[in-house]
Design a protein that fits this description.
This protein is 47% helix and 12% strand. With 484 residues, it is of the alpha/beta class. The strands form 2 sheets. A 7-stranded mixed β-sheet has the order 1-11-10-2-9-8-3. Strands 5-4-6-7 form a 4-stranded parallel β-sheet, with helices on one face. The N and C termini lie far apart (153 Å).
Length: 484
């Protein structure tokens, strides 16, 4: 009996374990199905009350199915559990959570869209563009043109053509390049502009002052030399025999507005020569063989006669290797065909290259001052000239006479009746940047009354021509209107 009772107890235990396992499995499956139903119903619940009602209908149908499937004594083990409440408790909770989540997401996206549209952002809405067509101007091709209009158009074309022919292609390229750079006249120490000094005081009250705060102070040559000697003393720069540099600011305008003073490169014989440390090659022309030998002995590089003039014209003999040319008077007429080849180096009495005493001419050209006049490539109305006129160790009177000679030779390149050729003269040393403006008015040429009258007559003729042109241009429309 004891054995049979123990076996029954064991069977009951096994049955109890099996039933509990089956119940747990059934509950797990029922929970999964209820969760799936809750997810589906929750998605449908986003549509509103109809989805919420659909969820409850699905819950009732699923509860009926689970009641029909319930078999055996399963309810006896769980008498307090109702399939309607227990089976779908998890489903109801899942539905509520999903419904709140999806509803919150949709509400958030709607708020984002409203904010983007209110700020004017086109990210969430299609691009709206307005196409506006702008028509060009209507060309009146059949409109008649008056004589005045034809004349104006022709004048404009002529002005454009004149402006185009003023400079060659390479000159235009160089001008464009130089415009990007600073003008040589504006580089240190700059160019004097009297209009900028109108409101400045005349003279400073102290010995130490700022130059830009006062008008340009002009000194005599002796005063400028004394100040340079102080700077070049052994205590400062220690160069008592420094070369003296004369910088001339020039006005290159002429009677014609489109024509400027041409540049030149010449030698100016000075009354007091000095050591300039330059190697100069001189070409001499002489008809006599003895004069040719004398010229070479005096320092000329080579001496030529009449037989070599044809070779120079044909290009068989190069003259570009020589800096200057001198000639005896017996060759004055023979070298005339070389004027276009030698250009500024052509020997004349004006530049001191033509004379009877060849050794004296050669000596002047070897020891003279090299004068170089250049036009400003950016501003053609301006010009510059730099030359060495002596050394600090020379007496003041000798340097002053050399400066006067150079200024007189420079002013021959422009008519004095047009005004002063020299805008300002600065005395400097090499090396060094210190500069002093000197007064050169006593050495400037004074124009005669005849020269001034000639220029005034030419100006009056130009004014009359301009007035006639303006009168004709004014009368042309009236004549055209009368003809119509």
């Amino acid at each position: 009996m004891s054995d049979s009772s123990s076996n029954k107890k064991n069977d009951e235990c096994y049955n109890t374990v099996a039933i509990t396992n089956n119940v747990e499995a059934l509950e797990f499956g029922r929970t999964c199905q209820s969760c799936a139903a809750g997810v589906a119903a929750g998605i449908l619940g986003l549509t509103g009350f109809y989805g919420f009602g659909l969820y409850f209908v699905s819950v009732l149908i699923q509860a009926a199915i689970w009641n029909m499937k319930a078999q055996g004594n399963w309810l006896s083990y769980f008498p307090e559990r109702n399939s309607l409440t227990w089976s779908h408790g998890n489903g109801l909770l899942t539905f509520v959570l999903l419904w709140v989540f999806f509803y919150g997401m949709v509400h958030m996206l709607s708020l984002v869209r409203q904010s983007m549209t209110s700020t004017g952002c086109n990210m969430l809405r299609p691009v709206a563009a307005e196409v506006v067509q702008t028509r060009g101007r209507k060309r009146a091709l059949k409109q008649t043109i008056t004589r005045q209009q034809k004349l104006e158009r022709r004048m404009k074309r002529e002005e454009k053509e004149a402006a185009r022919k003023q400079y060659s292609f390479m000159e235009k390229i160089n001008i464009r390049r130089m415009k990007n750079l600073l003008s040589p006249s504006q580089q240190f120490p700059g160019r004097l502009n009297l209009d900028e000094e109108t409101n400045l005081p005349e003279k400073p009250s102290l010995d130490v002052f700022i130059k830009s705060h006062f008008k340009t102070q002009y000194y005599t040559v002796s005063e400028a030399l004394e100040m340079h000697r102080e700077l070049q003393s052994p205590a400062i720069y220690n160069n008592p025999n420094a070369p003296i540099r004369l910088r001339l600011e020039l006005n290159m305008t002429t009677e014609k507005q489109t024509k400027m003073v041409t540049g030149s490169d010449e030698i100016v014989p000075v009354p007091f020569p000095f050591n300039h440390n330059e190697k100069r090659t001189i070409l001499a022309f002489a008809n006599d063989l003895k004069l040719q030998e004398l010229a070479v002995e005096s320092g000329a590089e080579i001496a030529l006669g009449q037989d070599t003039i044809k070779k120079i014209i044909k290009g068989q003999f190069r003259t570009d290797d020589y800096d200057f040319c001198v000639s005896h008077t017996d060759m004055g007429s023979s070298i005339l065909p070389l004027r276009g080849i030698l250009k500024t180096r052509f020997p004349t009495r004006a530049n001191g290259g033509l004379g009877d005493n060849l050794p004296e001419l050669i000596e002047k050209f070897k020891n003279g001052v090299k004068l170089n006049i250049k036009a400003d490539p950016v501003y053609p109305i301006w010009g510059l000239s730099d030359c060495v006129v002596g050394r600090l160790s020379m007496p003041n009177e000798e340097i002053e006479q050399n400066i006067a000679t150079v200024i007189a030779a420079t002013c021959t390149h422009r008519n004095p009746a047009l005004g002063s050729f020299i805008n300002r003269a600065l005395l400097m040393t090499i090396p060094g940047e210190e500069n002093y403006a000197i007064d050169v008015k006593p050495w400037l040429p004074v124009p005669t009354e005849e020269e001034i009258e000639k220029i005034e007559k030419r100006k009056n003729k130009k004014k009359k021509k301009d007035e006639k042109k303006t009168e004709e241009s004014d009368e042309a429309p009236a004549v055209a209107a009368a003809a119509l």
